[in-house]
Amino acid sequence: MNEIISYFSTIPSLHRSLILVSGITIFWMIENTFPLFKFNYKKWNHAGINFFLTFTTIVINFVLAFILLQTADWAIRNNFGILQWLPEIPLWLYTIVGLLLLDLIGAYLAHFTEHKIKFLWRFHLIHHTDTWIDTTSGNRHHPGESIIRFIFTTFGVLIVGSPMWMVFLYQTLSVISTQFTHANISLPNKLDYFLSYFIVSPNMHKVHHHYMLPYTDSNYGNIFSIWDRLFGTFMFLPKEEIIYGIDTHMNPKEHNNLKNLLQIPFQKQRSPKNS
Length: 275
Fold this sequence. Notes:
Elements: H1 2-9, H2 13-33, H3 43-77, H4 82-85, H5 91-116, H6 118-128, H7 143-160, H8 164-182, H9 189-195, H10 202-208, H11 226-231, H12 252-255, H13 258-263
GO cellular component, one term: endomembrane system
Organism: Flavobacterium hydatis (Cytophaga aquatilis)
GO molecular function: glyceryl-ether monooxygenase activity; iron ion binding
């Protein structure tokens, strides 16, 4: 455990980039070999749009990283946050509790809120317009949403009282989880369902990408599935019945056009056709 803490306390930016690139590469190869759905699309064109949006997310997080670092340092220095107020517990348990809480506030709460507040939904909508979900879709976020999520992450670090090594560990696990849950892969149903009791599994998250309500408003989890099950937002839909996208933007000229994707938050919003 101490070795893990030591590594993530000083993890180089190069290593974090390699984890991102390696994850996409590995899941890309797997989904090409064992695809869940056979898409009729130009994969590199689709990936190019998602890679651009991934790059903007990386840049925004890099530019604002000093805020996250200052927040974590302030919390530790001032003994502030849930982790700092806990009685002394084993380091492994301290780490699990911290990761669970970061996932709750920085990911689940952020995601849930983006679906419930119309202004925030305008930006998150871009993620849901993708009708060809694959591993590159994981970080398909409008730059505006990247800022929104950064705010929630910073708030989570403050409330949890998380040390920076734990933030880096969480972000690493989050990247891998996101690529895994969005990958166009098909796990055995029993294995996927078993995993969904502990972590967000591919089939569980893909229900969230079904094009119509109420499924769009379910399965908000990022790494851990406990929050959806605890708060009653878990839903199941056979993977054969899933149709990707969002019913207000099913036209490829809208969801497969980078310029339009960047403009969607500022366009007149449409009401869902289905509920």
